[in-house]
Specification:
By secondary structure, the chain is of the alpha/beta class. About 50% of the residues lie in helices and about 10% in strands. It has helices at about 5-20, 40-45, 80-85, 90-100, 140-145, 160-165, 175-185, 210-215, 220-250, 260-280, 285-305, 310-320, and strands at about 50-55, 105-110, 115-120, 135, 150-155, 170, 190-195, 205-210, 255-260. Strands 5-4-6-3-7-9 form a six-stranded mixed sheet. It is globular. The mean pLDDT is about 95.
Length: about 325
Amino acid sequence: SLDTIFGSAEMFAKTVKALSGGKFEVSVHAAGDLMPAFGVVDALQNGTVEMAQTAPYYFTGKDSIFAFGCAVPFGLTARQMDAWMEHGGGRKLMAAFYANYNIKSMSAGNTGTQMGGWYRKEIKTVADLKGLKMRLGGGLFGEAMQKLGVVAQNMPAGDVYQALEKGTLDAVEFVGPYDDEKLGFNKVAPYYYYPGWWEGGPTVHFMFNKAAYEGLTPAYQSLLRTAAQAADANMLQKYDYLNPTAIKSLVAQGTQLRPFSPEILEACFNAANEVYTEMEATNPAFAKIWQSIKAFRSDNYTWAQIAEYNYDTFMMVKQNEGKL
C-alpha cells in the first residue's frame, strides 16, 4: 500500500524495462508473496531470488554491520548517507561486508529524518520509557532503547496496527506523516513524537545475488545502476513533497505532536554510544566502519552549520512569522 517505499521497487522495474526497450524485465512481489519479509537475505545468499528490496538493518541479528547500510542511532541524514556512501568510502566498506553474503547492493531510496513514533501515552521523562513495549523496525536502536528500559519488538509494518490497537504494543515507530497516516496509526495512538533519532536518514537498498549480477553484461549492469539511482532520488523527493500535507492532515484529525525533551534525547544519545563502545570492543569490522561514519559526520556538520543551517533557521523564523 506504500507508494513511497514499495513504489521505489515498481519505479526501478519500469525504468529497467523502458531503458532496455522491453528486453530486460524485473518482476516485483510484495513481502510474503515469495517468502517472508525477513527472509530475503537468506534467499539472496542461496540464489532463491536474484534481487530484493529491503532495509538492511532488519538483519542485524546476523551481524550488527548490516545496520550501517541503512541507519544507526544519531547517525547520518539522507544527504550525508548519499555522500558517505558514494564519495566517502561507505559503498566500498559495505560492499566488502555484503560480499560475505553473496550480495551486491545499491541504494533504493531514503525517507529523510523520520518521526519518533506513535505512543498511547505521553513520554515526558526518561522514566516513562521503562517497560514501554515498542515496535522498532530494526538495527541498533533496539539495543539503545533497551538500555533505557524499553521492551523492543521487531515486526513487519503490516502487523503493527492491530498490535497497537489491542495494547500488545504501547508504541510504534515506522516512517513519517505520509506513510503513517496511510497505515492509520493515528487512529489508535494519539501522541506523535519527534525526531526519530535512530533514523536520521535511513537508506532502503536494492540487493542482488552477487553471482547473478556479475553474470550480466556490462551494459545491463550499468542499466541497473542507472535505474537504482533514479528510484533512489525519487523516493526522497516524494517524501519531501507529501509529508508537509500529511502532517497538517494528522494534526487536523487530532494528533498531538510532541518533541522528545532534551533530557530524553541526551539519555538516548548516551545509551547509543554505550552500544557502539560495546560493539567496537568485540567486532573490529564494525569499529572500522563506525569510525569512518563518525569522521565523515563530524566534518559534514562543521560545514552544514555554516551555510544551510543559518539559511534554514532564518527562513523558518520567517515562515513562523507568516511572511513566506
